[in-house]
Amino acid sequence: xxxxxxxxxxxxxxxxxxxxxxxxxxxxxxxxxxxxxxxxxxxxxxxxxxxxxxxxxxx
Length: 59
What we know:
This protein is an all-alpha fold.
């Protein structure tokens, strides 16, 4: 067994620290990033961002 805590161990530790055993809400923080001027954004760029930010939570 690894001496390093697993992700699940860390989640349990933080939840105990917060005085709870579960999450009440989970926020989807997926996102995209483009390093270009707004005037250089293509329709494909916009569609890709829309799919992640607007439609993603409903998929």
